[in-house]
Design brief:
Low-confidence stretches: none
Oligomer: single chain
Mean pLDDT: 82
CATH topology: Methylamine Dehydrogenase, Chain H
Distance between the termini: 24 Å
Largest sheet: 5 strands, antiparallel
Length: about 150
């Protein structure tokens, strides 16, 4: 199963290749602008709401807004394979001492969705990843410019 987001239609979805099916859940917050998705546990997907400054979580056991069968499309032309020479760069780590800012997260629950507002105004969360039972996210804007964790 593959999870995906549709920022234009404000959806979180799954593609199930074994049965050629797509399931989609509409995010309750209008214009949430989902950018990234990550599996948190079986049946639970977290996503960033770029436009609203929230991290969302959806329970995929809930009934989807849309469920449709799809026919696989096969391309007629063979893939083009091209050899490229790798470019190797050496990165020097820059370590900075930081003081963590701990804030209590509030939660908004609507049906299968739970949304967690990020305390930093205009943070524009961009990426999400599962981490030890929680979700790690990046605040993209200059207002944020931080890494956060939701547990």
């Amino acid at each position: 199963m593959v999870a995906f987001q549709d920022s234009t239609l404000n959806l979180i979805g799954t593609l199930i290749p074994s049965v050629n099916a797509i399931r989609e859940w509409r995010i309750p917050e209008a214009s949430a602008g989902p950018l990234y998705v990550a599996w948190v546990s079986p049946g639970v997907v977290a996503f960033s709401e770029y436009s609203t400054g929230r991290i969302g979580v959806v329970n995929l056991a809930a009934a989807p807004a849309v469920q449709a069968g799809i026919a696989p499309r096969r391309a007629g032309a063979p893939p083009v394979v091209q050899a490229v020479a790798p470019e190797i760069s050496v990165l020097v780590p820059a370590l900075m001492a930081i003081s963590p800012e701990i804030t209590g997260a509030s939660r908004i629950v609507r049906g299968a969705f739970a949304e967690y507002p990020i305390p930093t105004a205009s943070s524009e969360p961009a990426g999400v990843a599962a981490s030890n039972g929680g979700v790690v996210f990046a605040e993209f804007s200059d207002a944020g410019n931080r890494i956060g964790r939701l547990r």
